[in-house]
Amino acid sequence: MSLTINDKDLDSQIERLLPEITSIRRIIHQNPELSGSEKETARLVYDNLKKIGLRPSFHLDKTAVTAFLNNGRGKTIVLRADMDALPIEEQTGLTFASKKKGIMHACGHDLHTAVLLGAASVLYKNRNKWKGNILFLFQPSEEVEPGGAYRLIKGGVFPKNADAIFGLHVSADHPYNIIGVKEGVDFAGVTTFDIIIKGKSGHGGTPEKTIDPVVCSAAIISQLQTLISREVSRFTPATLTIGSLHAGSIRNIIPDQAIMQGTLRTHSKDCMNLMIKRIEDMVLSTARSFRATAEVSFNRSYPPVYNNPDLVNQFASEFKRLAGADSLVQRTNPSMYAEDFAYYQELVPGIFVHLGVNDQKKRSVINGIHSSKFNPDERAIKTGITAHIAFALKTLHS
Q1: pLDDT tens column, 148-184
Q2: Is 302 labeled as catalytic in the residue annotation?
Q3: Among the options 15, 20, 280, 378, which is catalytic?
Q4: pTM flag (> 0.85)
Q5: How many Cβ atoms from other residues are within 10 Å of residue 270's Cβ?
């Protein structure tokens, strides 16, 4: 069952547009680009925005694109999509799978970009239905700190007079014809950290003459996992992950050092500050117990995503009017993912919603984002376009 919009004119317009937008999504999917290298994607977006009738502009060394649609006096809103891919080898078996070895749109940004192009086309054609200004913002580098949002804001690309912003992200939590949204804090704030353990190298046959940074690292990783369970309230969401550990190059040599990289995620600034201090304390003290030394550095990356309650309620009412009462789910639990969309929300009120990409009844639950087999249901494109339109119409009219 496909999504049917309760506005026959809009519904027919989107339906006619879907083959073209789906084709664009597949072209982007076949030609993924890593963060900071999105020049081909940006050019495709630029050309399609011109085709719609807009006047796009490049930014950030032609990896970002904006198009401003002025349609009379009124509010100014921003609709945003991210465009970068991930360093993952695709294993979906799709006929339009990535042509680039080791690079894949495993986070759905190809779909985000296509959806916003579709929304731009529909909103441009229906200028008689709204007044105000819309900035269509196609952003690079969401996956790599400090994020494309931060750079666009610092570069003066984000409009200072904006009244609201909207964005979405694909989600395997919901069917393709459902939007999930949560009031208040949703996506987590994230701090990345790097740990260097310095020991003393030597032969694996005489470990007593060395200071083994590998064993020390193993102890530190085990110790760090107790911080969440023993120093953070079970009512305060927090996660700590060591995602990278590198040490040595041959089996019988104990190396001089080991390097770890990790992330800390929470929705509370107080919790974040506490955990940063405790991570440093624990790493340094554990290293000393092994006669090793340690260096710890932190980089505060994205702040938490905060969805403005008034905008959530306005959007929910309009989206349900267009797509039906059962088309929207109010999420009760926040996500532990992180998003640089939060930087925009520090400047203007905004909402960031979850676009379902499973089949309608979850008969075939797809692999989640950042998986080499991630394959979102393309029927979600219509739902995503409708969500952008619902936000734009309601916010500009209210």
Answers
A1: 999 999 999 999 999 999 999 999 999 999 999 999 9
A2: yes
A3: 378
A4: yes
A5: 9
